[in-house]
Amino acid sequence: MSNHNRPWTALLFLSPAAALLILFAYWPFLNAIRLALYRSDGLGTEEFTGLGNFQLILTDSLFWHTFGVLAVFAILLIPVSVIGPLIGARLVHGVRNARAASIYRFLFVLPVVVPMVVSVLIWRNLYAADGVINRLLETVGLETLTRAWLGDPSTVLPAIVFMAFPFVGGVNFLIYLAGFNNIPTSLYEAAELDGASLRHVFIKIELPMILPQVRIILMLAIIAVVHSYEHILVLTGGGPGNATLVPALYLFRHGFEWGNLGLASAVGCLLFLMAVGLSILNLKYVRTAE
Amino acid sequence: MKSVIRAIPLHLTLVILSILTLFPFLMMALIASKDRVQLYTGFWSLPNPVRWENFIEGARLTAPFVLNSVIVSGAVTLACLAVSILAAYVFSRVRFPGRTLIWSLVIGLLLVPGILVLVPLFLTVRSMGLFNSYAGLVLPQVAAGIPFATFLFKNFFDQLPDDLFGAAAIDGASDLTILRHIVLPLSMPIVSTVAVLILLSSWNNYVWPLVITRDEELRTIPLGLVFLYTDLNLSNFPNPGLEMAAYTMASLPILVLFFLATRTFIQGISNGAIKD
């Protein structure tokens, strides 16, 4: 009976999921595309503008500015979030004592289960004029460097990236660690017999074996940079000025603060196209690499 | 002996990295245990005595948010598990017309970034009269979790041996019986993995509660903590000890869970990464 045609069971079991997805996923998705073609303030007035919203956005210097901010984040954040956890995982993988290794793993993952908002609010406090960072600088005799880190357009972007310091833990660390643990011990034993140095083992054995993880994490890091904005919303709201306004936050403010729902949806469509583009690129890249 | 000595630099490095990773939370704990005078006279010194009253007041301030988060994230997790398990069972074990097409429609949702649908989702939920309500908080989060949860469940169900189902079907067991008495008991590892994943993402969700609620009574932890700063007028009357103690107390419930079920959490977090 298994795997036979039972359309009624299918209908019955699928209907709760289908109802929720239609109402809260497909309908909003289609509505997002429709709204992108309308001028709308969300209070009832809607006016068809065709591609007018896209034209407005693409000629808005603020929109291009947000991509500049995004580029800075990408350049600062992607390398450290690919390489940092790799180092962390390699170090933990090298710990012989299983108990010690699991303690380090616990500590490296712990920030992930602290609510994101808590981390951000702590850092806001640490960066304040009389906060821990400035106190530390004063203690070591670097008073001249103290400043309002989040209020200064020249330091706010690095300050946001620095919240992930020392960059060795988190989700990516776990992915790498799983990769390291999947390397057959026989490879290590063979290397030991050959008297290979640690550096040699890393370059000749470990790095090639975890290349798939590197690729996945590179992709995840790119997508995370493009899509994440909640921590910026909490920390600076896009400021000072528009120094930390990323495209997703630009969308959020059009939609919920400036009352331009059509413009917000148009930005959303552009971000969606970017996501699809990245995914296709990823599929192609991964396929050809394997 | 030689290997122990060789391991010392490694452990030293890892201990330093652990301290740096936890630095913000160590600072949170340090500041939270002091009152204003202690912070002024000896910022870096260990708290003596520890100001437990900060934590008590912090717990009192954040208790309503914690309760709301338990209600909302608990409901989201349970509902999403139930709905996704049913759907995944069908996609894995029942043939019906249009199965492949419908499955690809579900999987396609994984490509849609949350920020794209945020505005129209808000409009939809508001037009249903669910603005500023628990249902408005919960239902869209359930829907958001379905595609990935169903994906993970289907992959797991696909790997269960066919004989299991054949034997039960010969005995005349209905699908619901097979699901409850055969599939579910075998699927506990994946159920807990998905539960952790949904729980964490709902627990962390800041933007949806922000746009869909108005009343203080509906605030979840992330929202409540962000508003605490203005509610307590901390910009004019700074009280870092109390502020940090409130953050500490609000973080505790999930930290305790993480401590009790580390393995399950780590599995859930690893699996969740492949999404997005």
Describe, in plain words, how this protein is organized in 3D.
The complex is a heterodimer of chains A (290) and B (276). Chain A is mostly helical. Chain A contains 14 helices and two strands. Chain A has one domain: MetI-like fold, CATH 1.10.3720.10. The two termini of chain A are 39 Å apart. Chain B is mainly α and 276 residues long. Chain B has one domain: Orthogonal Bundle (MetI-like fold), CATH 1.10.3720. Chain B is 78% helix and 0% strand. Chain B is built from 13 helices and no strands. At the A-B interface, helix 1, helix 3, helix 4, helix 5 and helix 6 of A face helix 1, helix 3, helix 4, helix 5 and helix 6 of B.
* CATH homologous superfamily annotation of chain B: MetI-like
Shape of chain B: globular
Question: What CATH architecture of chain B would you give?
Answer: Orthogonal Bundle
SSE string of chain B = HHHHHHHHHHHHH
What's the arrangement of strands in the largest beta sheet of chain A?
1-2
- Average pLDDT metric of chain B: 91
Largest protein interface? A-B, 95 and 96 residues
CATH architecture tag of chain A? Orthogonal Bundle
Number of strands of chain B: 0
Please name the CATH topology of chain A.
MetI-like fold
What percent of residues of chain A adopt helix (DSSP H or I)? Answer: over 70%
Give me the oligomer status.
heterodimer
Give a concise summary.
With 290 residues, chain A is mainly α. Chain A has helices spanning 7-35, 52-58, 61-93, 98-113, 116-126, 132-139, 156-162, 170-181, 185-193, 198-209, 211-227, 230-235, 247-256, 261-289; strands spanning 38-40, 46-48. In chain A, α13 (247-256) packs antiparallel against α14 (261-289).
